[in-house]
């Protein structure tokens, strides 16, 4: 049994003892694939202290016992607490430029000939800014290229229940819209009134294009693909090398030859996977 350490921490909280941190580190790695080094100890302590208060637990040992006896009941909340959901509309603009200028016109032309569907996956969608930005450029491309009849959808998944709730609601403070151009903001974001003053909601057309679902990337995936593109940006920075290798092999299995994988600005497939070739800034194409 993991014993609780009730030694006060800075600020009058409860300290995270060595045994508890070892247990949490192993648990998070096993269930989430996230490697927590010793340098993350204070971060884990600070963030989980709020979770302990919410659950009415007096020490970290009690929280570890909860995870030990009923891991699934708390797994999503734990993952939300230890991961950082930092995102924005049109983050890494060069990815969207590539979609608009090259990829979407090519895909839509191919789909029109073949009758196939178009699918994009936002893996680790956080609070939804990424998939809704993708939906904007997709909706515009469908109109521009006269392809309204094509079956086109974006799958948005994340592990965090709190982030997914925001993504499903599609309601954002006005200051979060900074990455959206004035033209797109006028067209795709509906300004709130009354109790929603200071907020904006995504246009119903974007909701039609985006499906938001919970998913742990380390567990079984219900979808079988294929996807034309997978966006997995600023997600694998939390994973160690073996976990990254497994994940990218699974992504490759869901992409056809020529399918595209988009990573975050500090991420790379170098030395991890040879199923892809680098074709641009953190943009990879599957070989075949």
TrEMBL record:
Catalytic activity: L-glutamyl-[protein] + S-adenosyl-L-methionine = [protein]-L-glutamate 5-O-methyl ester + S-adenosyl-L-homocysteine
Keywords from the named record: Methyltransferase, S-adenosyl-L-methionine, Transferase
Residue ranges the record marks as coiled coil: none
Residues reported to bind S-adenosyl-L-methionine: 85, 87, 91, 130, 158, 216-217, 233-234
Methyltransferase recorded as keyword: yes
Pfam families: CheR (PF01739), CheR_N (PF03705)
UniProt-listed PROSITE patterns: CHER
GO molecular function: protein-glutamate O-methyltransferase activity
Keyword match S-adenosyl-L-methionine: yes
One GO BP annotation of this record: methylation
EC number(s) on file: 2.1.1.80
Domain of life: Bacteria
Gene3D superfamilies (alphabetical): Chemotaxis receptor methyltransferase CheR, N-terminal domain, Vaccinia Virus protein VP39
Boundaries of every CheR-type methyltransferase domain copy: 14-288
SMART domains to which the protein is assigned, alphabetical: MeTrc
Function of the protein: Methylation of the membrane-bound methyl-accepting chemotaxis proteins (MCP) to form gamma-glutamyl methyl ester residues in MCP.
Descriptive protein name: Chemotaxis protein methyltransferase
Organism: Rhodanobacter thiooxydans
Organism classification: Bacteria, Pseudomonadati, Pseudomonadota, Gammaproteobacteria, Lysobacterales
């Amino acid at each position: 049994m993991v014993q609780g350490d009730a030694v006060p921490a800075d600020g009058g909280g409860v300290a995270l003892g060595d045994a508890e941190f070892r247990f949490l580190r192993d648990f998070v790695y096993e269930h989430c694939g996230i490697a927590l080094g010793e340098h993350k100890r204070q971060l884990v302590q600070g963030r989980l202290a709020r979770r302990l208060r919410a659950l009415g637990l007096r020490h970290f040992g009690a929280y570890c016992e909860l995870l030990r006896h009923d891991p699934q009941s708390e797994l999503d909340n734990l993952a939300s607490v230890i991961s950082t959901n930092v995102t924005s509309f049109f983050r890494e603009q060069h990815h969207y430029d590539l979609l608009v200028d090259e990829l979407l016109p090519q895909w839509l032309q191919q789909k029109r000939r073949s009758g196939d569907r178009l699918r994009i996956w936002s893996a680790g969608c956080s609070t939804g800014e990424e998939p809704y930005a993708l939906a904007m450029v997709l909706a515009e491309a469908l109109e521009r290229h006269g392809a309204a009849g094509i079956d086109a959808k974006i799958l948005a998944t994340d592990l965090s229940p709190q982030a997914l709730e925001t993504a499903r609601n599609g309601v954002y403070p006005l200051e979060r819209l900074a990455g959206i151009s004035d033209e797109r903001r006028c067209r795709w974001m509906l300004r709130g009134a009354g109790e929603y003053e200071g907020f904006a909601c995504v246009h119903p057309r974007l909701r039609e294009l985006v499906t938001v679902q919970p998913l742990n990337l380390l567990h079984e995936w219900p979808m079988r693909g294929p996807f034309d593109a997978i966006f997995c940006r600023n997600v694998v920075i939390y994973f160690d090398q073996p976990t990254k290798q497994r994940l990218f092999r699974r992504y490759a299995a869901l992409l056809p030859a020529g399918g595209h994988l988009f990573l975050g600005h500090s991420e790379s497939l170098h030395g991890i996977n040879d199923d892809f070739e680098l074709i641009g800034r953190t943009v990879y194409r599957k070989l075949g």
